[in-house]
Structure formats: C-alpha cells, structure tokens
Design a protein that fits this description.
Length: 197
C-alpha cells in the first residue's frame, strides 16, 4: 500500500542557515558538543562543536584524534594546530587565566579538552563568533566558524574591545558553482570538424 497522506511524504522543512549565510560577526551563539557514536561512519569526526545562532541556524567545527602523520602535517604540527584551537575555546569559556590540565597523548588532549568544554557550556554561556567561507585561497561553499584563532569570545567582551576582525585570509563570500554551458553556446562553438561521419 502506498499512502501519500502519510507524513513521510510531506515536504521537508527548509533549513535555517547560520547567520543567514552572512559572513562576519555572529552574536549570541550557543555551542554544543556531539561525540562520535558507535553507529556513525568510520570517517566521522570524533567530536563536533555545533554553533547555533539566535534563529536556530547552525554550523560546526569537527575534531579528529591525531593518530598519524598526513601528507600535509606531521603529528606534532597537527597537535599544535588542534591545541591552539582547543585552548582558545577553553579560554573563551573559563577565562584566559584558566590552567588546562597537562596531558600525555593527542587522544588524551582532545578527550580532556572536550570534557572541559562540555562542562563549561552547561551554564548556557553565549558567544560572539566570527564566521567565514574558509580562506581567500580555499573558499568553501558553506559558512563555518573561522578555522584559526581568534574566532570566538564570550558575549561579555564589549564590541569595541573585540579581537574578532575580518582579516586578509577570510573568504567573506560563498563559493558559487560555475553556470552550466547552455545548448546555444555549445552549438555555436562546434565546427564542421566535429562531424561524426
């Protein structure tokens, strides 16, 4: 039986885009953590920080355990980059004087920091976040929190004292796909040499 009256055939709701798709400062952002579940895909991030604006639009930043060198960076370089981001987030939550526990491994680093972040977010803090479309050299299709520090601060920071400023690296406009070539453009570019006979 096919019953089109069933709710599974209803049109989906349109997604709310983070900050309406506008790059730059986003105020009153809440943050939550998603941890990888046993039934997630193998390549899924180990943790995601989900940034949600006042209108319910969200985007996220993904974190994986550093386990091996890549073609782009060795383990030490990857851990340093991830550590800078984690320290920035923790200090935005707890303050710049907060002492982060010393850990022994990259896995312990990520687990320890995510627990601190989760515990710190329990109070319902709100943040100011800088969102962009990646870098000018590597522009992305979807809006995201800036992937380098500084990218967030508590709303208690006065706007005139904010460190969140647009820089030369920030891509502020969404990557658009090229338009497909129209039939008339294709036919005008063909010649007699293209004959299949």
């Amino acid at each position: 039986m096919i019953n089109l009256n069933d709710s599974s055939y209803d049109a989906g709701t349109s997604a709310v885009i983070f900050n309406g798709g506008k790059a730059g400062i986003v105020n009153n952002v809440t943050i939550s953590i998603e941890k990888k579940k046993a039934d997630d895909k193998e390549q899924a991030p180990d943790y995601k920080l989900v940034f949600t604006d006042a209108n319910g639009g969200s985007c996220n930043t993904s974190f994986w355990y550093v386990t091996a060198d890549t073609q782009y960076a060795n383990m030490k370089e990857q851990t340093l980059k991830q550590g800078k981001i984690l320290k920035h987030i923790i200090h935005a939550i707890y303050g710049s004087e907060f002492q982060i526990p010393v850990v022994k491994t990259p896995k312990e680093l990520l687990d320890t920091c995510m627990k601190l972040i989760r515990d710190g977010l329990a109070s319902g803090l709100k943040f100011r976040v800088f969102a962009n479309y990646g870098t000018a050299q590597y522009t992305k299709k979807y809006i995201q929190p800036r992937s380098w520090v500084p990218f967030m601060e508590p709303m208690t920071v006065l706007e005139e004292e904010s460190r969140l400023k647009q820089g030369d690296l920030d891509a502020m406009v969404r990557l658009e796909e090229d338009s497909p070539v129209s039939v008339s453009e294709k036919s005008s570019s063909s010649t007699d040499d293209d004959d299949w006979d």
